[in-house]
Amino acid sequence: FRPIVVPAGVELKIMLSCDARNTAWVSFDGRKRQEICHGDSITITTSCFPVPSICFRDPVNDWFESLAQCLHWNVRKKQNYLSSEDE
């Protein structure tokens, strides 16, 4: 799972390399996988109809904080203590 984040107004075109030996698979939002074959392309753009939202501070800061929380950025899981048997 490799999330990517792009600013508004960006258009992405995803294609399989012409010298690729095999097909590729993609999934969006972790849903049903889709195969990309030679000659196929996927174009991804932002919606013409943005989702309205209520901001606590400002739109940019709130967006990044929400994204960081969803993707678990800067989160470290608590590790177990070393037992005396390990020494």
TrEMBL record:
Gene Ontology MF annotations: NAD+ kinase activity
InterPro entries: ATP-NAD_kinase_N, ATP-NAD_kinase_PpnK-typ_C, NAD/diacylglycerol_kinase_sf
Taxonomic superkingdom: Eukaryota
One BP annotation, GO: NAD+ metabolic process
Pfam families xrefs: NAD_kinase_C
Stated name of the protein: (spotted green pufferfish) hypothetical protein
Organism: Tetraodon nigroviridis
